[in-house]
TrEMBL record:
Organism, as annotated: Patiriisocius hiemis
Transmembrane segments: none
Record family assignment: Belongs to the RutC family.
Domain of life: Bacteria
SUPFAM superfamilies associated with the record: YjgF-like (SSF55298)
GO molecular function (one): hydrolase activity
Annotated keywords: Hydrolase
Protein's name in the database: Rid family detoxifying hydrolase
Ranges in a coiled coil: none
Pfam families in the cross-refs: Ribonuc_L-PSP
Length: 126
């Protein structure tokens, strides 16, 4: 049976989805965007801050599921502008041990929900 993961440390969903779903040992997170979970407000405008907010939401989701970033197998990063690749990598990379970092893809897309600049989802396993 699947278990819905829900934490106040990540923003409430803005559509018909959950923050994450756990099935057995596998965790599937929704794409996280720069909404401050405490205020519910979008915090875009600074890509370092946006990326940090996204990664902190993922951290809260992993914690709620009894996991850490070490459990992440795969990440998907969607960006509005590949010019931000280096900055996003710097923040994203600070959450992982490079030797055991997950598989990943980074894709520039035409648009993202709420016109954010970065959205990240992860798949993790216990
Ligand atoms: C923000 C999202 N994860 C969504 O709209 O699907």
């Amino acid at each position: 049976m699947k278990k819905i993961i829900s934490t106040k440390g990540a923003p409430s969903p803005i559509g018909p989805y959950n923050q994450a779903v756990l099935k057995g040992n596998m965790l599937y997170s929704s794409g996280q965007i720069a909404i401050n979970p405490e205020t519910g407000k979008l915090e875009t405008g600074n890509i370092e801050h946006e990326t940090t907010l996204v990664m902190e939401s993922i951290k809260a989701i992993l914690t709620e599921a009894g996991m850490t970033f070490e459990n992440v197998l795969k990440a998907s990063i969607f960006v509005s502008d590949m010019e931000n690749f280096g900055t996003i990598n710097k923040i994203y990379g600070s959450y992982f041990n490079e030797a055991t970092a997950p598989a990943r893809e980074t894709v520039e897309v035409a648009n993202l929900p709420k016109y954010v600049n970065v959205e990240i989802s992860v798949i993790a396993s216990l």
